[in-house]
């Protein structure tokens, strides 16, 4: 196995573990620190990729064969689905949706994770504030 195959396997292991945790533990609040950390890690990896292979590699990767186009469609649909579920909650928290969309659309998961981090932080703060107000 080369380094890229190991990285692929580690990602598969991590995402499977995260999925099992979400299904079993049934968390009710998002973790803003984890979302921000994932956005930072993916953003950092992307910066390395762009420095090594260039921005055009994204285009090349998604246009050289049917698999590349399928992965592109999958990415675009996942971003749209993510926004579909996140935007109503973000709107309820008063987030600037156009600003976030301008980040999410060109960066996909990086921007979506950053948006989730902000949303989770705002929701958790609102939850704490409402519990504090109810206690007084």
Biggest pleated-sheet summary: none
Number of helices: 6
Coarse morphology: globular
Strand content: under 5%
Low-confidence stretches: none
What is the percent of helical residues?
over 70%
Tell me how many strands there are.
0
Report on the architecture of this protein:
- The protein contains six helices and no strands.
- The chain has helices spanning 3-25, 32-53, 56-63, 66-92, 97-107, 109-135.
- The model has no long low-confidence stretch (mean pLDDT 94).
- Helix 2 (32-53) runs antiparallel to helix 6 (109-135), helix 4 runs antiparallel to helix 5 (97-107) and helix 5 packs antiparallel against helix 6.
- The radius of gyration is 18 Å and the shape is globular.
- The relative contact order is 0.11.
- With 136 residues, the chain is mostly helical.
